[in-house]
Design brief:
49% of the residues lie in helices and 9% in strands. It has 202 residues and is mainly alpha-helical. The chain has a three-stranded antiparallel sheet with strand order 2-1-3.
């Protein structure tokens, strides 16, 4: 009987497996992200769902419609933060008008899981120098976080990641002279540059 039930359910099992592999919910680019805002004037609460692309960029995640209850344009808003994908980074890298944040984008991009993706776009000469500069700064932030003594003591740093990044950046030292390094703060240079064999003067 159990075998018969299994055979009868086999098509559904195959379909379930196929859906698990191709499920759009597993694809960050097809996932929907929630935005919620509360009117500062009357307290009216609204929610909406936006695409990965809309949630990724500051210009597309704006919710500028006035409050439907009182007409106010003053809101407090929270949004789900999408993960960085190759598609969203490509949009950002190839359009000077697109940005994830109005400032300090390198801090937002500085996540360990983004390393290989950041490096691939850093090496892409077709990406504008201004964008590649931000990618370089983001990689330096990740390295800084994994070299900082207090992070090491607290168990937040990874020697494996720091060694990996040192290897990556030492092969790309020319970028530190070719690109603008204004986003690499002095406190980051103080820790990162000596490890890479760079002078801190620039």
């Amino acid at each position: 009987m159990d075998l018969l039930i299994f055979l009868l359910n086999l098509p559904e099992l195959y379909e379930s497996l196929f859906n698990r592999i191709t499920n759009t919910d597993m694809n960050s680019n097809n996932k929907k992200y929630k935005q919620e805002r509360k009117c500062s004037n009357c307290g009216f609460l609204e929610q909406r769902q936006v695409s990965h692309t809309e949630a990724s960029f500051e210009i597309t995640r704006r919710w500028e419609d006035p409050c439907p209850q009182c007409g106010s344009n003053s809101f407090g808003m929270i949004s789900d933060s999408p993960v960085l994908t190759e598609e969203s980074l490509s949009i950002w890298a190839n359009d000077e008008k697109m940005y994830f944040l109005g400032q300090d984008e390198h801090l937002m991009l500085a996540e360990e899981e983004n390393i290989d993706l950041l490096v691939s776009f850093l090496d892409n000469q077709s990406v504008p120098a201004s964008k590649r500069s931000i990618l370089l700064a983001a990689l330096c932030i990740i390295l800084f976080d994994n070299l900082l003594e207090e992070n090491i003591q607290d168990g937040y740093a990874s020697e494996e990641i720091s060694e990996y990044l040192v290897s990556i950046l030492k092969k790309r030292l020319k970028y530190f002279s070719e690109l603008d390094t204004i986003d690499i703060s002095g406190y980051v240079r103080k820790v990162v540059y000596p490890v890479l064999g760079l002078k801190q003067s620039k």
